[in-house]
Task: inverse folding
């Protein structure tokens, strides 16, 4: 359709921009122009290749272990050398090791064992006491790049709200853990107070805030972080990936939580890593040392003289000096307790909460001080094995029922059906295979059933270290402790009686089994016995005349 000028004026076109200027026609063909344009675009619009580093973090550097400072030397007048080492190490790498700090190792192990029960609580109950901006205590879980990798943290400090919430989800175990943690924290705060005093008194240059803490701030409390270390050895790439994730998390947390000092318990760790914004170094800490790292508050009031870092002990792989796989680490009393529970529950189906409660009760027991914590999986495995054997009509404990069935002329102990509390009141002695002598039992460490079907227990003898531990046959080598006699009780000893007699010669002095073969009765008062007893030792049939003070009789 043709458009007249009138109609064009009636419908003017609204241009948003001026029309393009006319371009003179080129002499070259369109194909040639396209080639030129393509070449121009390739050179002028080329996006450069961006090559990123192959790792997010700087390479881990191993350094010589920081100096070991004797804590007791800080209390002496001649402590200049120790103080110099502290100042130099904190200025250089932000940490140092503290030895001879006076915190009992048994207390540390006891707290760790009791604390392990915290992580055995079900996920549903953990969610009740999870951390939040309004609630700085409780459980905190983090997941790495793979869902199967998970680390757990529990933050504890003196707070009534935390106490009420934890007693609600873990009534029996938490009071035990909290009591032990209070004792440990009291010792740690004494150590931390002394270190702060040393640092404050020896700031090389005066801070803008004076020779003290930042204005308006005080060290008013102590927070404890319990970290669950997964000791299972991972593939190298997974382990490094998980470690890098933890580094990011710790650096973020370190900037959020202001603190003066951090004291790390590194018992059993293979390495200790120190992180800062400028690098990442590692060293092998001393087994019994506390590693102390400097916080942001101290760096601030020292005007940067002391270096703020974040530290973490590393547990790579699993190492254990005890048998973890062949037999659960149950004591004899714990085995008997589970025997009693097994009879009570009968055919009932047991859930995870039941196993966790048993494990927590065992781990918090005073008899397990210094020993490894009992895991709920161990308890579950024990009960499942019992149920399988019962289902196949195999007698589970033919030996256990007669574990204390020693000869009638030796002793008669309480039946296994009695409560464990009654067993714990008994005192035992065990026979060493090295010299056929009897020694008091300090603890039953473990048990096993040998190929003959007999039960053996691992015994720690009273007054001896773990290098003298022995496996002892329960039927032949464990019995109730022999009893020394008062002078007025000499009439109880008869010819033919089995006694425990003290035997001494140039090589040894031991208590050995013997039988009375003759007695010379003499008149005496109640203060001292003058009777003579002729004994024949069972070991070599040697005979000797002894007085009553060298004889212990067997319980009746």
Result:
């Amino acid at each position: 359709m043709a458009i007249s000028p009138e109609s064009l004026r009636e419908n003017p076109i609204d241009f948003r921009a001026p029309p393009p200027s006319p371009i003179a026609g080129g002499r070259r063909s369109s194909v040639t122009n396209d080639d030129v344009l393509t070449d121009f675009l390739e050179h002028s619009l080329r996006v450069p290749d961006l090559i990123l580093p192959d790792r997010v973090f700087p390479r881990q550097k191993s350094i010589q272990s920081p100096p070991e400072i004797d804590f007791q030397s800080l209390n002496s007048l001649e402590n200049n050398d120790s103080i110099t080492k502290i100042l130099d190490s904190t200025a250089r790498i932000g940490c140092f090791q503290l030895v001879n700090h006076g915190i009992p190792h048994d207390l540390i192990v006891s707290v760790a064992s009791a604390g392990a029960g915290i992580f055995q609580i079900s996920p549903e109950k953990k969610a009740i006491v999870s951390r939040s901006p309004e609630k700085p205590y409780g459980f905190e879980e983090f997941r790495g790049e793979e869902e199967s990798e998970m680390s757990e943290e529990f933050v504890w400090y003196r707070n009534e709200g935390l106490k009420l919430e934890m007693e609600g989800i873990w009534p029996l175990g938490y009071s035990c853990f909290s009591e032990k943690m209070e004792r440990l924290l009291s010792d740690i705060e004494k150590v931390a107070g002394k270190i702060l005093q040393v640092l404050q008194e020896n700031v090389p240059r005066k801070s803008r805030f004076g020779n003290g803490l930042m204005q308006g701030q005080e060290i008013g409390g102590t927070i404890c972080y319990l970290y669950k270390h997964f000791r299972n050895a991972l593939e190298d790439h997974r382990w490094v990936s998980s470690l890098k994730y933890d580094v990011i998390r710790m650096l973020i947390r370190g900037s959020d939580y202001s603190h003066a000092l951090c004291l790390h318990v590194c018992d059993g760790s293979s390495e200790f890593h120190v992180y800062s914004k400028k690098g990442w170094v590692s060293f092998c800490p001393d087994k019994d040392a506390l590693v102390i790292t400097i916080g942001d508050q101290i760096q601030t009031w020292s005007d940067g003289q002391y270096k703020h870092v974040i530290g973490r002990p590393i547990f790579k792989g699993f190492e254990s000096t005890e048998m973890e796989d062949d037999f659960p680490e149950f004591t004899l009393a714990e085995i008997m307790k589970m025997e009693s529970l097994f009879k009570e529950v009968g055919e009932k189906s047991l859930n995870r909460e039941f196993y966790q409660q048993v494990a927590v009760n065992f781990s918090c027991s005073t008899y397990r001080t210094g020993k490894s914590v009992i895991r709920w999986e161990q308890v579950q495995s024990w009960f499942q094995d019992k149920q399988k054997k019962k289902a196949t009509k195999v007698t589970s404990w033919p030996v256990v029922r007669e574990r204390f069935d020693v000869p009638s002329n030796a002793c008669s102990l309480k039946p296994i059906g009695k409560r464990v509390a009654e067993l714990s009141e008994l005192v035992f002695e065990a026979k060493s295979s090295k010299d056929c002598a009897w020694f008091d039992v300090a603890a039953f460490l473990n048990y096993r059933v040998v190929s003959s079907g007999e039960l053996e227990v691992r015994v720690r003898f009273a007054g001896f270290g773990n290098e003298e531990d022995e496996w002892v046959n329960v039927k032949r080598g464990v019995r109730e402790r022999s009893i020394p006699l008062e002078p007025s009780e000499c009439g109880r000893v008869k010819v033919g009686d089995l006694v425990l007699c003290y035997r001494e010669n140039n090589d040894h002095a031991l208590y050995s089994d013997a039988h009375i073969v003759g007695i010379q009765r003499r008149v005496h008062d109640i203060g001292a016995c003058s009777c003579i007893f002729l004994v024949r030792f069972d070991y070599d049939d040697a005979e000797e005349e002894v007085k009553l003070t060298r004889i212990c009789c067997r319980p009746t």
In short: The mean pLDDT is 75. The first helix runs from residue 5 to 10.
